[in-house]
Predict the structure.
Amino acid sequence: MAKGMEAIYSRTWTSGANGVSFNNIPQTNTDLLILVSARSSHTSFDGFGIYFNGSQSPVSNNSITGNGSSASASKSTYRSVATMPGNDSTTNAFASFQIYVPNYTSTSFKQILVEGVTENNATAVQLVLTSHLSLSNAPITSFMFDSATAGVNQLAQTSVSIYGISR
Amino acid sequence: MTTPTIIEVDCSTGISTERPMTTEEIQAMEERQAAFEAQRAAEEAEAAAKATAKASAEAKLASLGLTAEEIAAL
């Protein structure tokens, strides 16, 4: 595989769904870069959940968050890694996430970096930086994302682009 | 109630399929949600208990005569 970045998949959906799964991820690159634009149908801010190979555990998250008025740090062991705007955010405002998965084909734990920010024409926004440690030795062949906090539909116009990086 | 839907993408072909979730998938989604809620509640309770214990310890140190700066330096 030549060094560099290649597009694996990219699409914007015209209808929403309760979950989006990506299967049969090519095992020919070194790293994965996943770019997501998403919005939840929850009443307010909603967790953006991601899990790999069909299992949401075991994982270990460390997050730092800014919400427009304060900053905090937290640890967790569940699949919510960032925040999506909900119905009380500005209409048609989506969150942007960048998920970087180094060495996704390795047979060691995966240390995944997630950067996410909500778009909202108000003081209340959510900026989240999360290190997401997947405590699994299995190479990543699939992943799924969903509404982690509310278990609701992600709205139409959710878009995802997946890139494979060889280095 | 509307049946939850799922979008499945086969990254080897680029084909995506949107369909209603099966009964098993809905059950799995509900189980994930329940596990998520349980984990979150447990971790928030643990963090709250730790914060309460920290505040209590700081109050006891203060009653022994330590200043706020001395407590923060520990």
In short: Helices of chain B lie at 23-63, 68-73. The longest helix of chain B spans residues 23-63. Chain B has a mean pLDDT of 89. Residues 23 and 43 of chain B are 30 Å apart (CA to CA).
